[in-house]
Structure formats: structure tokens, C-alpha cells
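Supplementary Data S3. Sequence and C-alpha cells for construct A.
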Amino acid sequence: MAKPKVFILEDDPSIAAAVRSSLEDEFELVASEWNPAAVLQIHEQMPLVTLLALESSSNSVAEGYVRVLQELRQTGHGGKVIAYTESTERSLAVRAIQHGAYDVLSKPLDMSLLRQIIRRAARVADLERDGLGVTEGAGHDEFSGMLGTSPSIHRIFDAIRKVSTNDAPILITGDSGTGKELTARAIHGRGLRRQGPFIPINCGAIPESLLESELFGYERGAFTGAVGQKKGKVEFAQGGTLFLDEVGELPNALQVKLLRFLQDHTFERVGGHQAIEMNVRIIAATNVNLKEAIEKGTFREDLYYRLGVVHINLPPLRERGEDIALMAMAFLRQAAAHYNKSLEGFTREALEAMRAYPWTGNVSELSNRIGRAVVRAEGAHVTPMDLDIAHSTVPGDDGSISFKVNQQRIETDLIMKAFTLSQGNLSRAAQELGISRSTLYRRLRQYGMDRTLDARRVLGLSPRASMTEH
């Protein structure tokens, strides 16, 4: 596998040499001093990450570096820029963030930390560069919009390919929001019946008194108000696929009628006496544990085995690793286009927060949060506060059992949760944590969090997402 390319734009040969010595084992490095053609050089090299030295804002060379940031952003450069400086002027760091820097570090550089940040930045840039990682090799077109490169989702893709070649009934299980209907549509779209209709019906959303007639139709005079004959979903699915979502909610009487249809492909409309034969494939889905429902007597065991000739169980989002970032980028593009907003992606902290979040609502919750975050976002990148997710600014868990390292992780996570609850208010955050405001501010400075939070205020972002004193 090729090493990620990193471009080093640094005037000091000793610093460039030190960075090269520390990183060359993992990254492909290209170094250059600042010059008017720097932007062209970066575009020609197409690095995933560019390291950019910033000096005092009074220095004309520093202004040149800032212009590099501006031009890279304006020309649509797909890589990430990590700036570093020994200047204590906060305005310089804020300007770098404002012009699209992925992160700003202080000198002297901590090479271990720099390596971790470059690694993450390269991974994000790689996802964005490959069409945000959405189409190539991620199943997007082939599987009706389903996305993923993780081993667990590739097992689902393999199962879809196999079951698409036959007409066996399929039972899809999984938590709410894991994509059961998308999976059913992907099976239909690849299958023998793809030229026929795909008819979905949510068995849990229709009152029990109406469900039978919605599913099987009715004859004229079958009940009060039945002034004419009506076809049901089964008939509309002729030659195609009938998708029974939330099949675990079917009442017992309808379970019997569905079982008969699965056995001999015939049914009668409500109020009718003539058996109607249909050529329909059944795909059912549920988030209910049907084996437990069988034990409770609320679901028929014979129907369970008829429906589940093939059983596909969808993994929860928290078990799909990098698929979270992949789908988040896709949802961000969709939402940004819908709301006519120009966004470049997510901050490093936002990506870390999404990876750590449990996602109990799975893909549906992810899509919903991204949509809301796009509406809220006021900068070029979506932040954890836009997502309304607390995060830790400490590098990811590397398995360390160091008390100091883990104490910092815990404290930063609690601080960010407090800022989320207090809508960025420093005094209320301190009150939530049970510490004084001065103690909280010392912790922010100790962990380098004051720059991240305060930069938002300097940039004029929403008071809800800035560090205030009130």
C-alpha cells in the first residue's frame, strides 16, 4: 500500500529535516521552502496533507503562507493543511483556522502528536478525495444507496448478491435505523424481479382494523363504506416484490392468512370467496426479536420459518467502524446541496466525536443529526457543537493504561459535555462540573482546548457555540 503523501512547506532547513526524520517511515514526504509558486507545487504533488509553518503576523513571509492557505481553499485543494507556529498571537492561529487549516499546532513540535494528527488528516482527506468515499467500492450504486467498506457491511453486500439470484422469502432483522428497507430494495434491484414493482407496507403503522384490507384488498360491500372493489398491496406487487416492514406487528389472524399465501401463493380479498393466485416475492423485516415473540405466543413459529428461508441480520452502526465517516460525508453533501450551503466537511473533533458516539438510532439518527448540523453550521466545517455531540480533543485511545493519559481523556470529555449542556457558557459549564470558573479555564489551557473554543468566538460564530463568560 502506498504511503500517504505529505508536503512540507518550511523555510528552516533544520525543522524540515527533523520533521522528515520523524515521519519518513510512515509517509511519503516532499519538502520545499516558501516561494510564489508554492500553491502550484502543492497542486502538482497532490498531497493528502500539507504542513505549513507560520511565523509572526508582522512577517511578510507569514503573509505569504496565509495566502497559500487562502488560495488552496479557493482552488478546491482536496488535501488537509496543518499549520504550526511559535507565535503567541492568537489572531494568527484564528486566521489560519478561518482560511481552512485542519489544525494549528505550537512549536516546538511534539512529533508523536504531529504523527497522530497527520494520520487522521490523511484518512479524512482520502475519504473526501475519493468522492467522499461514497461511490467507489462502497456499494453506493450497486446496492441502492447503501454505503460502506467495513467487513460487516461487506458481508451484507455478499448476502444480497447471493439471495438476488433466487426467489426465496427473506427475513431482514436489525435495530431500528440500520437500513432494512434499503437492503430489501437492493435485493429487488439486483434480482430476477427487478423489472417488476417494489411495494412496501409498514405493518406497524396501519391500524389493525384496516391492515387486512390494505394488504389483501376488499370486495364491494365487504363492510360499511366499501362501495367498490379495491386491490391490496399484494396484487399491486404482482411480478415484483412485496416488502413487509415491521412484520412482527402483524396480528395473529393476519399471520395465518400470510402463512397461507406463502404456502400456495393464493389469497382472498376481504369479503371475497374466490382464491386469487399471485406471483410475488416476499421480503419481511423487523426489529423485534421474533424468537422471543414466539415464546410469548405473539408470533407464529411456522410463519417465522416460512418468512426466514433466508435470514439477513444487519449490524448496528457502532460496529461498522470507518463507515460512520463515510456515510457522514455523503449525508453532509446531500444536506448541503438541499439547504444550498457551502461546507467543506467535518472538523477533526467532529469526526472523533462521531466515531465515539453510540448511535442508538443507527443510520437514521446519523442522517438526521447531519441534516440539523448543516443547518446550524456557520463555518466551513461541521463541529461537534453543530452535531450536538460532546467530544474529546485528546488523541484517540491507543490502549494506554497511563493514569495521566486516561485522566486527561475523561476530563476533556466531561468538559465538552458541560459546554454542550451550557450552550458554550463558561460559568454555567463550571457550575455543571462543580468547579470554579478559574479552575475550568486552567484545564482548558492545560489541554489546549481554549484555542478551539475561543477561536469560534473570535470568528464571530453563534453564541450557542462559543465560549462566553456570562
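Construct B, processed identically:
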Amino acid sequence: MISIQKYVRAKSLEEAYQLNQSRANRVIGGMLWIKTGNGSVNTAIDLCDLGLDGIEETQEAFLIGAMTSLRRMELHQGLNTYTQGAAGAAVRDIIGVQFRNLATVGGSIWGRFGFSDVLTFFLSLETFVELYQGGIVPLEQFAALGYDRDILVRLIVKKKPGVFAYRAFRNQRTDLPVLTCALSRMEGEYRAVIGARPGRAIVVRDEEGLLSGGQTEGRYNAFSAYVARVVPMGSNTRGSAAYRTHLARVLTERNLMQIMESGGK
């Protein structure tokens, strides 16, 4: 069990940032995974009063505040229209509605959890993170970094024309995923993202041109096999490395078929 000595609702990002410079303090987000750990927090920093709990849609992008709940993301009409329903599909099996009403997008992204559906999904989009001190950084770059004392303010998803698909395999519906797989085709570039390896999600691009020159079943098989071959897998209680490699091929191919059927030829 985690113990908290002091609770502060930050009045500004500057106040939250300054408090967070002490290693004994912590930004709490939705407080769902943090409370399952052990240890002591001197000051728990809550960002709930800073107006970061919504999704703003502009002509160029979606601006998703760090305190936006997964449930709000799941139900957001604009985001789901843009991603052909992939946004909702990426989070709908995360525990339950009550959990998704509390869990935050920022907490999920900052945690860079190896089991994260959220990280897998957003890596398949043209996504950037806005950090209070670090500025705007591509999510793919941010996902590979270590943890520091900065504050994640929001996600920025550029509206790059494309088609999208998301699938995950779970041993039971509300369990943590055995493997996650997002796939996108934006302006001719295919991007497959594999997570729950078990490890942070990895982006795979069609660097060998396996999908160029027209989409066929043979090309889908070749690219799916390529993704399964290049992504490092591991074993845990939910599945073996060999099983995850098999799932990567199957889920990638099914996402490719979905993209083709939705007009991504």
C-alpha cells in the first residue's frame, strides 16, 4: 500500500512543476496504478484544477489534456470519426467503465507501461506530447525516454489523412492484454505498433516496401510476418514469447484487412 503525507491541488503548472522537483513528491493522475504500489509519497500533486480534462478539436489537430479520462476519449465523437472507431476500440476493454472514468490519458502515456493499450494506439497516430519544460516532443521519441521530473501537459494529435485499426488479445475481456496491435496508413506510409510484448510499444514501418505496389493477401502475409520477426518478445504469466510472436502476425494481418475494407487501398 502507498502512503501519502500531504495532498496539494496545484493552482498552476509552475506550482506543480516546482513541487514535482522533489523526488519524494509525485503527480498522481487518476491514482489507479499508483495506489497498487508500495512506498511513501511526501506530497501528492493533483492537476485536476488546471483545465486539462478535455479534448479540443481544431482543423489541424486534437488537443487532449493530460487529465482527460479514458472514458471521455472512448466516447469522443470527433476522435472516433477521425480514427474510424479505433480510439474507442483501444480502451473499451480496459477493466471497466468505472475504471475508465478515473484513469487519465496523461497518466497512461507518462507511465509508458509495457501493457498499455493507450500508448500503443497513440503511437500509430501522428502524436506529440507537450511537456511543461521540455516543449513539444514526438510521442515515439518520448516513449523511448527515461523518467524525469517534468510535467506532461497534453497530447497533440495531428489530423494527418489516413486510415486506422486497433486490436488487442486478452485471455479474458477485462484482463491486461497479452498483446496489443495498432496499424495505420497515413499518406501512403504504413505504421504497425506492437505493445504488451511485454514491454513498451514499438513502432514498425514498412522499410522493405512489402506493401508497395498494391495490396494483396501475399503482401499482407509478408508484412505481418516481418512485423512478427522484428519485434522483440518476452514471456510472462499471460503468454510466452513464441505465442506473442504468433499473435503479432495474426493481429497485424487482421488490421491490414480492416484498413483495406475501410478504404485504405
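The radius of gyration is 19 Å. Residues 162-261 form a domain with the Enolase-like; domain 1 fold (CATH 3.30.390.50).
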